[in-house]
């Protein structure tokens, strides 16, 4: 089975996306070293550094940096970005819609029952089952903390 993600970043050299060709291994602009890249079973992780911005959104002169991480999978280009994205503005992140609940990131009410996905999740109803046509309540199992 062919994995669409390279084993190393060196494998990208010479590849094209139809518009641009990769001519060198991508380099972190802060460390000036190749990105720390690891292929995973169904995607990859990419560790990078970036200048830490001040409250005024300008770069600090003392060259502080913060680590960044991008985790791509077969389902999401960036798990970290998906956790901050809500395409349909229903209060459920893209990550939660795709990975946890299986709801639509393009509709605020996936099952078209008149209740938003976020409300159904908050009230422990299944956002995939229409309240008018099926059993929509998910039984909540609570395990006591010892």
Task: Please outline the helices and strands.
Layout (H helix, E strand, L loop, with lengths): L35 E5 L2 E9 L13 E9 L5 H4 L11 H8 L15 H6 L24
Antiparallel strand pairs: 1-2, 2-3
Your description of this structure?
- With 146 residues, this protein is of the alpha+beta class.
- Helix content is 12%, strand content 16%.
- It has three helices and three strands, in the order βββααα.
- It has a three-stranded antiparallel sheet.
- A hairpin with a 2-residue loop joins strand 1 and strand 2.
- The longest helix is centred in the last third of the chain and has 8 residues.
- The radius of gyration is 21 Å and the shape is elongated.
- The relative contact order is 0.09.
- About 5% of the residues have low confidence.
Q: What composes the largest sheet?
A: 3 strands, antiparallel
Specify the overall morphology.
elongated
Q: Give the strand order, joined by hyphens, for the main sheet.
A: 1-2-3
Q: Got a strand count?
A: 3
Termini, distance in Å?
45 Å
Q: Order of helices and strands, N to C?
A: EEEHHH
Strand share of the residues? Answer: 15-25%
Structure classification = alpha+beta
Q: What's the pLDDT, averaged over the residues?
A: 76
Radius of gyration: 21 Å
Low-confidence runs of at least 5 consecutive residues: 54-61
Helix content: 10-25%
The total count of helices amounts to 3
């Amino acid at each position: 089975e062919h994995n669409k993600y390279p084993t190393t970043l060196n494998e990208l050299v010479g590849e094209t996306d139809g518009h641009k060709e990769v001519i060198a291994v991508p380099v972190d602009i802060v460390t000036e070293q190749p990105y720390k890249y690891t292929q995973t079973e169904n995607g990859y992780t990419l560790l990078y550094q970036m200048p830490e911005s001040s409250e005024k959104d300008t770069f600090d002169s003392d060259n502080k940096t913060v680590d960044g991480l991008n985790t791509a999978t077969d389902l999401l280009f960036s798990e970290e970005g998906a956790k901050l994205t809500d395409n349909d503005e229903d209060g459920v992140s893209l990550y939660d819609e795709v990975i946890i609940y299986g709801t639509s990131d393009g509709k605020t009410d996936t099952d078209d029952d008149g209740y938003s996905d976020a409300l159904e999740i908050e009230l422990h109803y299944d956002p995939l089952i229409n309240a008018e046509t099926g059993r929509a309540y998910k039984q909540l199992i609570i395990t006591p903390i010892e």
